[in-house]
């Protein structure tokens, strides 16, 4: 009986140890607590896929996700109803629209065979660099913090800052309808 | 009594050997490795002519994104205009062009991936270049999280291989520029 209890406890510890991955966990811990209930408009500007992933298990899992902002009166505000086009390396293409928080996402079930590197475009603005492996836009397009050279957009030596929408793209995006 | 003395002597000798191994002259010795042309890597002509896009520019764009080799903690860390910027300067991602200091750092990073083999390739005029880890990983022959980056016979592969084989800047740069154009 004692042996069984020992084995049971060991297997639980082993399983818990296997699940723990310090790299995503450190990012998740740094995101802070949830404000209100989780929804499609929660946590704008944070790296979505650290949680919407196999590791953390937030539903739904995403293939690509991010947030788009506008610059208004020296502040960043959500860019609503903006169409984003993401293309992968085998001519795959997906479109998404930003919601009331500026968030957009493509569910993993809608892009199972996504192949890196990716590129992204919104309005007349395309990314200048490729997306090599991280489909959370905010992993690179970081919110402003104490290390930012630009305290408004967050641009710094390791980030181009948050994604700022093409001013002509907002509200004029074909197929984006009313934001939810 | 004699045996105790002998054991103590052996232990003292072993301790001395270990200590000298850690703190001896070898601890501060340096070794110099050769690397293929800095000129062809950087795109900065040695004769002072105008800079051109070459190996560094290609690698910055294709390998040095912020989520790959432009990440601070990743091996072969690369700086570049659209990736990680030198924290000692005040440039931002997407801002000013890649600086000379950043290109120097890129050259050092790439040359040190496989320093002994890189030295060998530089000495044998590139005959062993195809064995280099940097090329093997880029071709996807060696395990590489970023997958296959270049395939043989394409401008990107020619850009890297040409540099590793010791080709001159005038030959390497057009290949790298063609590879950049395809991104």
Structure in words:
The complex is a heterodimer of chains A (180) and B (183). In chain A, strand 3 and strand 4 form a beta hairpin. In chain A, 17% of the residues lie in helices and 21% in strands. In chain A, the strands form two sheets. In chain A, strands 1, 2, 5 and 8 form a four-stranded mixed β-sheet that branches. Chain A has one domain. Chain A is α+β, with helices and mostly antiparallel strands and 180 residues long. Chain B is an all-alpha fold and 183 residues long. Chain B has one domain. Chain B is 46% helix and 0% strand. The radius of gyration of chain B is 22 Å and the shape is elongated. The mean pLDDT of chain B is 90. The chains are: A alpha+beta (180), B mainly alpha (183). At the A-B interface, loops of A face loops of B.
Beta-strand percent range of chain A:
15-25%
Q: What is the count of distinct domains of chain B?
A: 1
- Low-confidence stretches of chain B are none
- The CA-CA distance between the termini of chain B, in Å, is 78 Å
For the terminal residues of chain A, how far apart are their CA atoms? 56 Å
The total tally of domains of chain A equals 1
Helix content of chain B: 40-55%
Strands of chain A, count: 8
Give Rg of chain A in angstroms: 19 Å
Number of helices of chain B: 8
Mean pLDDT of chain B: 90
Most extensive chain interface and residues per partner: A-B, 20 and 24 residues
Query: How is the quaternary structure best described?
Result: heterodimer
């Amino acid at each position: 009986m004692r042996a069984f209890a020992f084995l049971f406890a060991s297997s639980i510890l082993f399983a818990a140890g296997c699940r723990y991955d310090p790299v995503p966990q450190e990012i998740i811990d740094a995101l802070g607590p949830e404000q209100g209930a989780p929804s499609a408009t929660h946590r704008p500007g944070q790296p979505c896929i650290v949680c919407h992933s196999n590791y953390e298990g937030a539903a739904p899992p995403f293939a690509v996700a991010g947030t788009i902002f506008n610059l208004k009166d020296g502040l960043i505000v959500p860019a609503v109803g903006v169409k984003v086009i993401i293309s992968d390396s085998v001519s795959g293409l997906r479109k998404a629209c930003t919601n009331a928080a500026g968030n957009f996402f493509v569910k993993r079930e809608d892009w199972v065979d996504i192949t890196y590197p990716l590129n992204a475009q919104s309005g007349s603005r395309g990314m200048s660099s490729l997306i090599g492996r991280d489909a959370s836009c905010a992993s690179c397009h970081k919110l402003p913090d104490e290390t930012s050279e630009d305290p408004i957009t967050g641009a710094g030596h390791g980030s181009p800052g948050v994604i700022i929408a093409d001013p002509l793209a907002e509200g004029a995006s074909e197929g984006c309808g009313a934001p939810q | 009594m004699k045996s105790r003395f002998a054991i103590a002597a052996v232990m003292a000798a072993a301790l001395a050997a270990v200590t000298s191994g850690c703190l001896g002259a070898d601890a501060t010795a340096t070794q110099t490795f050769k690397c293929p042309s800095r000129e062809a890597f950087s795109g900065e002509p040695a004769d002072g002519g105008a800079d051109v896009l070459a190996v560094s520019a290609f690698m910055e764009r294709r390998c040095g994104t912020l989520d790959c080799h432009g990440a601070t903690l990743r091996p072969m860390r690369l700086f570049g205009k659209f990736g990680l910027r030198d924290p000692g300067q005040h440039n931002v991602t997407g801002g000013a062009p890649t600086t000379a200091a950043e290109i120097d750092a890129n050259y050092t990073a790439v040359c040190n991936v496989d320093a002994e083999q890189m030295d060998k390739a530089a000495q044998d005029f590139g005959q062993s270049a195809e064995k280099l880890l940097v090329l093997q990983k880029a071709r996807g022959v060696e395990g590489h999280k970023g997958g296959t980056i270049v395939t043989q016979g394409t401008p990107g592969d020619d850009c890297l291989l040409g540099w590793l084989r010791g080709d001159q800047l005038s030959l390497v740069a057009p290949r790298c520029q063609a590879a950049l154009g395809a991104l």
